[in-house]
Amino acid sequence: MVKSFEKKNILVVGGAGFIGSHLCDELVKTAHVLCLDNFLTGTEENIDHLLSNPDFSFIRHDITEPIDLSDPTYGLAKSKAPWQGVQEVYFLASPDARGDIDRFPVETMMVNSVGLRNALDLALSSKATFCYVSSDAIYGSLADTASHIKETNAGIVRHIDNYSSYAVAQQFGEAIVETYRRNRGLDVRVARVFNTYGPRMTLDATDLVADYTRRAANGEAILLFGGSEAVSSFCYVTDTVKGLQRIMAAGDEQPVNIGSDQPVRVMELAQMVMALVGAEVEVVIRSDYTDGHRAHLVPDITRAKETLSWFPVTLLKDGLKRTVEDLRASRGLVHPAA
Question: Which of 90, 139, 163, 166 is the catalytic position?
Answer without folding.
Answer: 166
